Amino acid sequence: MAKKIDAKLKRQIIDVSKSVAAWVFVTAASFGYWLVVLLIASLVLLNVWHVTFDSILKYSFVLMIITSVVYLGFQIKKWVR
After folding, report:
1. pLDDT in tens, 24-52
2. Separation of alpha carbons 78 and 18, rounded Å
3. Which of 52, 62, 71, 80 is the most exposed place for a label (fewest CB within 10 A)?
4. Rounded distance, CA 78 to CA 17, Å?
5. pLDDT tens across 44-77, in order?
């Protein structure tokens, strides 16, 4: 009986660590995505949107946090089911 519990616990630990790794990857990838999108937008809107690289980094960071929270919400909703 103890071996079944140990195997079940190990499987849960592996599943949680995979989920955490996926969350870290999605968060890092979303920062890169938003950074590239905002850089392209700043080039396209060069005469309209006067923005510095520092503000693009700040906007990317805020959008990354929003994306990360939404991703966590979907994951929690998936875990609850």
Report:
1. 999 999 999 999 999 999 999 988 989 99
2. 14
3. 80
4. 16
5. 998 898 999 999 999 999 999 999 999 999 988 8
Q: Which of 37, 43, 46, 45 is nearest to 64 (CA)?
A: 37
Separate counts of helices (H) and strands (E) for the chain = 2, 0
Instruction: Please say whether the beta carbons of 78 and 23 come within 8 A.
Output: no
The predicted model scores a pTM of 0.80
Pairwise CA distance, residues 79 & 17, whole Å: 14
| Identity of the residue numbered 41 | A
Q: Residue type for 51, please?
A: V
